[in-house]
Amino acid sequence: MRYADWMLTVDERGNAATRLDERHPDGSAWSEGNRARALVHGAAYFAELLAGISAMRVGDLLLFTDWRGDSDERLDGPGTEIGTVLCRAAERGVVVKGLLWRSHLDGLHFSEAENRHLEQAIEQGGGECLLDLRVRPGGSHHQKMVVLRHPGRPELDVAYVGGIDLCHNRNDDATHRGDRQSLPMASAYGPHPPWHDVQLALRGPAVGDIEAVFRERWQDPSPLSRSPLVRVRELLHREDTNADALPPQTADPAPCGTHTVQVLRTYPNRLLHGYPFAPDGEFSIARGYMKALRRARSLIYLEDQYLWSPRVVDCFAQALRTHRQLRLIGVIPLVPEQDGPLTLPMNLIGRITALDELRRAGGDRVAVYGLENPAGTPVYVHAKVCVIDDAWASVGSDNINLRSWTHDSELSCVVLDQRPDPRAPADPGGLGDGARAFARELRLELMSEHLEAQDGSGQRPQDVLCDPVTAFAAFQETAAALDAWHEGGRRGPRPPGRLRRYVPPELPKAKRVLATPLHHVLVDPDGRPFGLRRHNAF
């Protein structure tokens, strides 16, 4: 496998101002010798994160960025609130530095106050957390990372990247009973919305890459906000607005595995004064997807919060049109996050338009599903995962929508495993690649959970899911059986599996007429003002 066949080269990243690639000794756009692990569900991630932070000592370095942080969110029971854990780490002498999106006003159902409370908790212990509004108008900082560095003990260094915020709703597990600390969502999700998410744990040289991403943002000399109103609030709340110097970056951890990792990002081209590390923006997430999709031959497996925007799904549709054996499986929320009288139809219009585009291209080779827990409550899919041909795997903060590909800050990691999967044919797609161990195991782990697949010994028969045609059929059959059970009044034993075929609800004609012009004229399905959609980023 040639990495440059699947991953972006330095030039293809399209951002000469970043130090992300030049820091590699060989000048490559990726790092080799890493060990990546997928942490499926917030409970697994939070427990591991708590153990890692608790073991940190004087002089260690903890860096994080997030879209939302709830200071009282418990990582693993009482006394493990994230604000308390970070405060205690700072009090022990750990260097704690954080960047939280300042957020829009809480009156718009965002998280300004919550993020400020977490900032205050960290500052109380002697750490430093900044509320960052250096975004395009209407945009956000959506990156979700934590980096733990241990000078003198590099074998403990780890970085976490993915879709899981340090906030309410996220602490769920495979039972999908929901986080007891819940935020309100659409009524279908109940008082404790079930939540499906994925975070990546990285060890090896890639830890240094993730730290470099943080340092670029931290060392940006621009004001945290250009808004006079925000500046007044900063003064009123006595917020820290000046980033203190970071200790020098230590050498990258030694190679420890077989995974090659490429860090991909979205940064918009900010008006007036761009980011010094991306003055014209960076759109490597979009470019990375488009390059990998040109090599797709057998199966694209997606888990995504949105799957919106016809312009974004066009590259998936093009792959489906070009290769008639290619299949696509999507796992998305059955119900949008909000069910307001205006937001629901606008969201559905965006999704319906995108799915229509995929189905025109792939016909019955495209199948989209939602999840429910054993009680029949929909599971909110917040994961951002894509596996292509069991070779290329991506886990990050980015969704399949225009906002994530052009407008918000995002962070994603692509993993290529040097190890071929021993169960794979040598060259199933005719490209000389074959399935790789990490990508295949990630897909099989996720699919097996959704299928609730068990054999007589209690082991998941994952081997049969290696074949993309078999896996595609297994999802179809499992969803069909569960759908039929519901339609039949839930009589008899509940069939195994969590899958329901995604069928968007019918919109009343009046709502469709209302939503469509708003969708096309005022905002796109991602909620951005029309005038901000015109930059040709990719």
Topology:
Elements: H1 3-6, H2 10-13, E1 31-40, H3 42-54, E2 61-66, H4 82-91, E3 95-101, H5 112-124, E4 128-132, E5 145-149, E6 158-162, E7 195-196, E8 198-203, H6 206-218, H7 228-236, E9 259-267, E10 282-283, H8 284-293, E11 299-303, H9 310-322, E12 327-331, H10 343-362, E13 366-372, E14 378-381, E15 385-388, E16 392-396, H11 402-407, E17 410-417, H12 437-451, H13 468-487, E18 499-501, H14 509-522
Parallel strand pairs: 2-3, 3-4, 7-14, 11-12, 12-13
Antiparallel strand pairs: 1-8, 1-9, 2-5, 5-6, 6-8, 9-10, 9-17, 11-15, 13-14, 13-18, 15-16, 16-17
Helix pairs in contact: 4-5, 8-9, 9-10, 10-14
Would you give an account of this structure?
By secondary structure, this protein is α+β, with helices and mostly antiparallel strands. Helix content is 30%, strand content 18%. It is built from 14 helices and 18 strands. The chain has an 18-stranded mixed sheet that branches. Strand 13 and strand 14 form a beta hairpin. The two termini are 26 Å apart. Residues 106-110, 455-460 and 517-535 have low confidence and may be disordered.
Using brief descriptors, characterize the structure shown.
538 residues; 30% helix; 18 strands
What is the tally of beta strands?
Answer: 18
Radius of gyration: 22 Å
What class do helices, strands and sheet pairing give?
alpha+beta
Low-confidence stretches: 106-110, 455-460, 517-535
> In one word, what is the shape?
globular
Number of continuous helical runs: 14
Helix content: 25-40%
Mean pLDDT: 89
Terminal CA distance reads: 26 Å
Biggest β-sheet, characterized?
A: 18 strands, mixed
The portion of residues forming beta strands comes to 15-25%
